[in-house]
Specification:
Elements (H helix, E strand, L loop, with lengths): L1 H12 L19 E4 L3 H18 L3 E4 L10 E4 L6 H11 L3 E5 L2 E2 L1 H9 L4 E6 L3 E2 L10 H6 L2 E6 L2 H10 L6 E3 L14 H11 L4 E7 L4 H12 L6 E6 L5 H12 L3 E3 L12 E3 L6 H7 L2 E4 L12 H6 L3 E4 L7 H9 L4 E2 L3 H11 L2 H15 L3 H15 L3
Parallel strand pairs: 1-2, 1-4, 2-3, 4-6, 5-7, 6-8, 8-9, 10-11, 10-14, 11-13, 12-13, 14-15, 15-16
Catalytic activity: lipid IVA (E. coli) + CMP-3-deoxy-beta-D-manno-octulosonate = alpha-Kdo-(2->6)-lipid IVA (E. coli) + CMP + H(+)
GO molecular function, one term: Kdo transferase activity
Keywords: Cell membrane, Lipopolysaccharide biosynthesis, Membrane, Transferase
Length: 397
């Protein structure tokens, strides 16, 4: 009874939310698996699961997420439907998935209620804590408890998450601590011939990278490089500016204020033995710079608006990570890296300079990078287990 009242109040409070109407491509023939990723961070894990379903089972995957995901064969990318009864019915009428997997703990009441009415098998994976759509805060008696009864399995990342779901009303038999899922590789591509050529030029020079550096952090980065040059006079700083249009003025500033030799990628200049700062103003080449730089500072995380690039890109390619107190959309990722002692946190420009100087010791940078790589490569058994559950449920076991 409480669930019905909560659902009614929820639908009434959102009856004016008509949302944005999105064009839907035709449904592919055959069996269809639906995966939902409410955030960019969980999307990588769900994409690895999608890859297995597509490559190993031959089933297309409907993938709903607000994250910006590159198209790929077999993956049908769609924005999440507006959570109203009419839109939920329209969405499920069109796609008719055979199974649905939600993640992290996001509950979409209208959509889950419609799934229950159709007896659609629904699982919650990589579960952290249950929550109704964050933009739909309100008091809905019994709603969370009722919605959690929809899930056949609630697979959590750890025991505290399991307790949160049990306390919120999930069936004890449905909740299982499974751990974190494997993530789709964050390793970015590169041209090996290009890497080899630049590596020969650099020879044994120490190198560090400022990835997607915003204007607000230029002064701190220059100061850190100035301090580190006292420890390693051959040190090269590679800067990939957040805004490539700033490359020219940034180069002029560094040359005028510091007297350093600056080279620019867009001018087809090379980082020769005299170059102290190399401005790589082509944002499509991160895979090259992560491979060449043993240390990466994640731009935007110190005094910008939040970390701009995914830190797992650097971790997957063996670069030790420095980051500030503003994780942006990658808070969970930095939490994992911090817990594994796989990244170095800095709280101020002074801390950045000190941490950089410390990591110029190759063995310290290597330990950090190895721990970070391990974070990017765990969870394969968890993803395999979930993949097996999909098989069992779709085959009627």
């Amino acid at each position: 009874m409480a669930y019905s009242l909560g659902l009614t109040l929820y639908n009434l409070s959102n009856r004016r939310d008509l949302g944005q109407v999105h064009d839907r491509p035709p449904r592919p023939a055959g069996r269809l698996v639906w995966l939902h990723a409410p955030t960019a961070e969980i999307a990588r894990s769900m994409l690895e699961l999608a890859r297995r379903v597509i490559d190993e089972d031959g089933h297309p995957v409907l993938f709903t997420t607000p994250a910006d995901i590159a198209p790929r064969q077999g993956l049908i990318l769609q924005p999440p439907p507006t959570d109203t009864p009419a839109e939920a019915r329209s969405f499920l009428d069109h796609w008719q998935p055979e199974i649905a997997l939600f993640s992290e703990g996001e509950l979409r009441p209208a959509l889950l209620h419609e799934a229950r009415e159709r007896a659609l098998p629904v699982l919650m994976v990589a579960a952290r804590t249950p929550y109704i759509l964050r933009e739909r805060d309100g008091w809905y008696p019994g709603l969370t408890r009722g919605l959690l009864g929809t899930f056949r399995h609630v697979l959590t990342i750890d025991e505290p998450a399991a307790r949160a779901f049990r306390k919120a009303g999930a069936a004890l038999s449905a909740v299982e601590v499974l751990g974190k899922m494997e993530e789709e590789s964050a390793a970015l591509p590169h041209l090996e011939a290009e890497r080899e050529a630049i590596a020969r030029q650099l020879a044994t020079r120490p190198v560090w990278l400022a990835a997607s550096l915003p204007e607000a952090e230029e002064t701190a980065t220059i100061a850190a490089h100035r301090a580190a040059l006292r420890l390693a006079h051959r040190l090269l700083l590679i800067i990939v500016p957040e805004d490539p249009a700033r490359a020219e003025s940034l180069a002029a500033r560094i040359e005028a204020d510091e007297g350093w030799t600056v080279a620019r990628r867009s001018e087809e200049q090379e980082p020769d033995a005299e170059t102290e700062v190399y401005i790589a103003d082509n944002p499509a080449e991160f895979g090259l710079w992560y491979r060449l730089a043993p240390i990466t500072f994640m731009g935007g995380s110190l005094s910008g608006q939040g970390c701009i690039r995914d830190p797992l890109e650097a971790a997957a390619l063996g670069s030790a990570i420095l980051y500030g107190p503003r994780p942006g959309m990658f808070g969970t990722t930095f939490g994992r890296l911090g817990a594994a002692r796989a990244a170095r946190a800095v709280g101020s420009p002074t801390d950045l300079a000190e941490a950089l100087g410390d990591l110029l010791s190759p063995d310290r940078a290597a330990r950090l990078a190895q721990a970070a790589w391990a974070v990017t490569s765990d969870g394969a058994e968890v993803t395999e287990h979930i993949h097996g559950l999909i098989h069992h449920i779709m085959d009627g076991d």
